[in-house]
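Sample pair:
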Amino acid sequence: MLYSYECPSCQLQKDEFRSVAKRNDSPVCDCGVKMKKIIAGYRVIGDFSPYYDENLETHIKSKQHRKQVMKEKGVSEGYGRGWR
C-alpha cells in the first residue's frame, strides 16, 4: 500500500510503499524528525497506459478492454505455447 507521511517540523510530505503491518513505522525526515502518517485522498496508481494494438487493429484502453476485444475477435493469447 502507498502511505503518506508528513514531518511535523518542516512539513515535508513523502509517500512510501509499505506493508499494512508496517504502516505505522514512520520514516525519519531528512531534517532528522520522525514523520507522522497522514490521511490522504484516495489515489489510484495505474500500471496500464492506453495504446494501439496492431494485431487487434484497435486502441486498447485497459486490461479488461483488451480481454473483451480479444473475445469479440475470437482470439486468445498463445504467448509461450510451442516455443522452443
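The chain has two domains: 2-38, 48-76.
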